[in-house]
Amino acid sequence: MNRNLLASCLSLLLFEAYGFVELEITVPSGTIIGSYGQVLILPCTFQVGGSWDLRSTVITWQRGLDVVHSFYYSRDQLDRQNPLYAKRTSLFNREMARGNASLRLDGVTPKDAGVYTCSISTNFGSRKKSFGVNIAAFYSEPRLQFSVLNDGVNLLVTSEGGHPSPTLQWLIENSEDITNQTQTHLMQDTHTGLYSVSSWINLTEVTNSSLTFILSNNLLGQNIRREIQLSSDKREKQTEPAQRCQGCFSLIPFILLMFVLIIMVLVFAVRRNLTKQNSFNKKQHMDQTQALNGTV
Ligand SMILES: *[C@@H]1O[C@H](CO)[C@@H](O)[C@H](O)[C@H]1NC(C)=O
Ligand SMILES: *[C@@H]1O[C@H](CO)[C@@H](O)[C@H](O)[C@H]1NC(C)=O
Ligand SMILES: *[C@@H]1O[C@H](CO)[C@@H](O)[C@H](O)[C@H]1NC(C)=O
Ligand SMILES: *[C@@H]1O[C@H](CO)[C@@H](O)[C@H](O)[C@H]1NC(C)=O
């Protein structure tokens, strides 16, 4: 402890003696989050004094070993810039005299995520500091799709355009976790780096219940929670024949009445026919007798 203190005092003394104090620079203390497709400013400030000289200032932004942007001889020097960053970076030159070495990065995508280092060298000294950058995108409103299988129903939920990969959860009746009865497929677009997710469950038996689908993008605090109400009319189907029969029962008196009426009409018609035939027969008989009488 004492020796450490002594060492730091000594180094401080040495710096003072050479008139050279380590440059103070400031970068974010944690990871910063950029929004997909938007401008992201990577903050970095350095200490400037009265005798600060632009011409002896070198600002270099790197991600790992890749050069993101560099500035020296009072201007941008981009011949060693990584092509991924071409025409997407700029420094705030007017702010530089105030110690602002922040980098503006346009149209960020998940490919820009990583650890960035801001290195500054001026006539006061030099220093570099690093911080993390993550790119996030919101997942779209999930789409729900039902398809009927031979032995049940397939329930499919899809959502696109998010980053990073989501966490998914399925609940039944808002409590029981049934995530491991479901299947999930995650796809990353090679061009944009964004994810599409689809998750499905096969229900062999649909009962009156509620299913809850939860999709979270933890980086953004996005939490999509959708409840799906399932209802089955199976019981109604079972009671349907009975209801039909009840209908039949209420029809029975009517049908009986109609039946009786038809019978009555038929009987009446038959009887009328019979009496007609009888009278005809009688008439014929009489004619015959008359004829017989005539011939006599
Ligand atoms: C640097 O300047 C830019 C442009 O005015 C500003 O948006 C940014 O906040 C400044 N950064 C710091 C750390 O002051
Ligand atoms: C499903 O998850 C539960 C815990 O949530 C676990 O106890 C059970 O073994 C899992 N079932 C299968 C089939 O993986
Ligand atoms: C659901 O059913 C389809 C078609 O029968 C099958 O391909 C799929 O693997 C099933 N999924 C689950 C989670 O059981
Ligand atoms: C489900 O609920 C509906 C009305 O909400 C009801 O008519 C039906 O009988 C119920 N089905 C079962 C299987 O409980």
Give a verbal description of the structure.
This protein is of the alpha+beta class and 296 residues long. Helices cover 26% and strands 38% of the residues. The protein has two helices and 19 strands. The strands form five sheets. It has a six-stranded mixed β-sheet with strand order 2-11-10-5-6-7, with no helix packed on it. The chain is rod-shaped, with a radius of gyration of 46 Å. The termini are far apart. One 2-acetamido-2-deoxy-beta-D-glucopyranose (NAG) is lined by residues 149, 154, 183, 202.
Write the layout of secondary structure elements.
Layout: H1 2-17, E1 25-26, E2 32-35, E3 40-42, E4 45-46, E5 58-63, E6 66-72, E7 75-76, E8 89-91, E9 103-105, E10 114-122, E11 125-136, E12 143-149, E13 152-162, E14 167-172, E15 176-177, E16 183-188, E17 195-203, E18 209-217, E19 222-230, H2 234-295
Parallel strand pairs: 2-11
Antiparallel strand pairs: 1-4, 3-9, 5-6, 5-10, 6-7, 8-9, 10-11, 12-13, 13-17, 14-15, 14-18, 16-17, 18-19
Bound molecules: 2-acetamido-2-deoxy-beta-D-glucopyranose (4 copies).
One 2-acetamido-2-deoxy-beta-D-glucopyranose (NAG) binds near residues 207 and 208.
Subcellular location: Cell membrane
Membrane topology: Single-pass type I membrane protein
Protein name: Ig-like domain-containing protein
Which terms summarize this structure?
immunoglobulin domain; alpha+beta; binds 2-acetamido-2-deoxy-beta-D-glucopyranose; receptor; six-stranded mixed sheet; Immunoglobulin-like; Ig_V-set; 296 residues
What class do helices, strands and sheet pairing give?
alpha+beta
CATH topology of the domain at 22-136: Immunoglobulin-like
Main beta sheet: 6 strands, mixed
> What is the spatial order of strands in the main beta sheet?
2-11-10-5-6-7
CATH class membership of the domain at 22-136:
Mainly Beta
Number of strands: 19
Portion in strands? 35-45%
**Which percent bin holds the helix content?**
25-40%
